[in-house]
Amino acid sequence: MDRGNRSTRVHEFILVGLTDSPQLQVSLFMVFLVIYMITLLRNLGMIVLIKIDPQLHTPMYLFLSHLSFFDLCYSSAIAPKMLLNFLSENKAISFAGCAAQSYVFVSFLDAECFLLDAMAYDRCVAICKPLLYNITMSRTLCVSLVAGAYTIGLVDSIVHTYFTFRLPFCSSNVLNHFFCDIPALLALSCSDTWLNELLLFIIVSLLEMSTTLSILVSYLYILLTIIQTRSAEGKRKAFSTCASHLLCITIFHGTLLFVYTRPSSSYSLDTDKMASVFYSMVTPMLNPLIYSLRNKYVKNALGRVMSRNYFSSYLH
User: Fold this and answer.
1) Nearest-10 crossing angle of helices 194-227, 95-128
2) Can you give the pTM of this predicted structure?
3) Is 230 helix (H, G, I), strand (E, B) or coil?
4) pLDDT < 70 regions, the chain
5) How many CA within 13 A on the CB side of residue 18?
6) H or E stretch including 174?
7) For residue 72, what are the contacts with CB-CB under 8 A and spacing of at least 6?
8) How far apart are CA 277 and CA 2, in angstroms?
């Protein structure tokens, strides 16, 4: 009998999580609770700070505020359920809940790929052609780039969610992952998933290769401009900034390529789970520190806001 005809409708999935060891559950809960709380505080803080400080109403900080929003959204699609499962015996997630989690996660993850590309271009124009910056990075272009990031994420996620959740799941509903990740769901399906794997490979490869290449070209121009700078201190600061940005981008894009562009025959879900932790939990925590909190303009804005709040509360 054909495998597809033996399928029964799955109403829920059981998330195995990072480990099935009871001794590690509480420790992992505390670790990831701290990571998630730092992610929430840093990213929410950045969004609020950029919103209320007029001096941060520039293209760079428009992109940074949306980067913080993307980080909040895709980490929050995963973290609450993940944390709950560390302490709960019931690790089930409904079929609809799994589809919603996957859709939200993929939407904002893909949108971030495109936004990081736009941010690299913004820095390239600011450093390489500072006199043309205000003309080149017009409000129309910035809004178009941000809207493009949202559109790419939402459309791509619709495609993946539709083709993944129309598959039959008949042999088991135990998902060897800590969230509803597409490769784990494909491995669980009892039908031929070659079309899904092909779509995943093509779309992720096109998105990753195009954005990564564009980012590298932008930073190459930046580095060439820095080399021509006479100030040794300016070179040191610029190289430090570029290195930290490129490290964050490498971790983010490298783990995405590792997880989503391999053939199913080479899947190792235990390895994939460890890689997924980096782009789903660690990167959203690090992004505000790497891109924003080390920035003197952000530090100055934070100081101004805190001073206003202090004196306001003192006077009242």
Assistant:
1) 20
2) 0.87
3) coil
4) 1-8, 234, 237, 240-241, 262-269, 293-294, 308-316
5) 23
6) strand 174-175
7) 39, 40, 43, 44, 47, 284
8) 37
For the chain, how long is the longest CA-to-CA vector?
Answer: 79
Q: Which of 187, 188, 181 is nearest to 256 (CA)?
A: 181
- d(C-alpha 249, C-alpha 200), whole Å: 21
Whether 284 contacts 261, CB under 8 Å: no
Q: What is the dihedral of CA 297, 71, 254, 201, to 10 degrees?
A: -140
Rounded distance, CA 252 to CA 116, Å?
A: 10
Residue 6 has a CB neighbour count (10 Å cut-off) of 11
Which tokens go with 305?
């806001």
CB of 234 within 8 A of CB of 222? no
Sign of CA dihedral 247, 110, 191, 202: negative
What one-letter code names the amino acid at 154?
A: L
Task: Name residue, tokens 């890689």.
Answer: 275
Burial group, residue 276, by CB count within 10 angstroms (0-12, 13-18, 19+): buried
pLDDT tens figures, 40-91: 999 999 999 999 888 888 998 999 999 999 999 999 999 999 999 999 888 9
174 touches 92 (CB < 8 A): no
* Residue 31 phi, psi (nearest 5): -60, -50
**N-to-C CA span, the chain:** 78
pLDDT in tens, 124-156: 898 888 899 999 999 999 999 999 999 999 999
